[in-house]
Amino acid sequence: GSFVARYGGDEFVVLLPGFDEYQAEAWCECLQQKVFKFPFKESIDEKHYIGFSAGIYTFSPFGCPAYSSDITANQLIQMADQAMYEEKRTKKLAKEIYEA
């Protein structure tokens, strides 16, 4: 099964054993859809929706000889963090193009 832990502030780490990149993306998309169904209501007329950015990094100690068996959890989190910031940049660029 999956494991979710608060990493700090508004950041969470999710472990999805056995998931490849496409399955992890689908898991994140499903979570986003579920979260989006429940907006915060500040007033009768005003709703706010929650969104998030996810950094996905897949790792298999058996899948690729380039991976070292002594890779640390911190290194894995750094790789996922880099992927998350890349997703944020992509979303920001897409928004700027859409609004232009």
Largest sheet: 2 strands, antiparallel
Which strand order spans the largest sheet, edge to edge or round the barrel? 1-2
Strand content: 15-25%
- The 3D shape can be described as globular
CA(first)-CA(last) distance: 43 Å
Question: Strand-and-helix sequence, N→C?
Answer: EEHEEH
What's the number of extended β-strand segments? 4
Low-confidence stretches: none
Tell me the structural class.
Answer: alpha+beta
Helix content: 40-55%
Give the helix tally: 2
Rg (C-alpha, Å): 16 Å
Summarize model confidence as the mean pLDDT. Answer: 82
Question: How would you sum up this structure, described in words?
Answer:
The protein is of the alpha+beta class and 100 residues long. It is 43% helix and 15% strand. The chain has two helices and four strands; from the N terminus they run E-E-H-E-E-H. It has helices spanning 21-36, 73-99, and strands at residues 3-8, 11-15, 40-41, 47-48. The strands form two sheets. Strands 1-2 form a two-stranded antiparallel sheet. Strands 3-4 form a two-stranded antiparallel sheet. A hairpin with a 2-residue loop joins strand 1 (3-8) and strand 2. The radius of gyration is 16 Å and the shape is globular. The mean pLDDT is 82.
